[in-house]
Design a protein that fits this description.
- The protein is mainly alpha-helical.
- Helices cover about 70% and strands about 5% of the residues.
- The chain is elongated and about 45 Å long.
- The termini are far apart.
- Keywords: Membrane, Transmembrane, Transmembrane helix.
């Protein structure tokens, strides 16, 4: 039991350390989408969304790494692939969950 907890904490620290650039880019992307597309200027609405989405991203990245990327390369250059995949999924899901229309951020053809 203790080794499971230590392994889980070690996995979260590794994901946080290696995925920090992607988490930072995801934070900037979410804040800019909220600010420029939805004109959300109130910090009390933006900050909880960013914290929740980045927490979900961190947990899902650790789960994806533990389940799928254990034997595959984790980094390509300085980009953590599992974190990138999860950020692409979590940001629109967070916006949908809060009731925003994500068709505004998608290009219309």
């Amino acid at each position: 039991m203790e080794s499971f907890i230590l392994n889980s904490i070690g996995l979260l620290v590794m994901v946080l350390a290696l995925g920090l650039p992607i988490l930072f880019i995801g934070t900037i992307a979410l804040v800019s989408i909220l600010y420029f597309q939805y004109h959300e200027h109130h910090l009390h609405n933006v900050i909880p969304m960013v914290i929740i989405s980045q927490g979900i991203t961190l947990l899902l990245t650790a789960a994806l790494y533990a389940l799928v990327f254990k034997d595959l390369p984790l980094l390509i250059g300085k980009v953590m692939i599992p974190a990138t995949i999860i950020e692409i999924i979590v940001i629109p899901a967070t916006l949908l969950f809060k009731g925003y229309d994500i068709s505004k951020i998608l290009p219309s053809y």
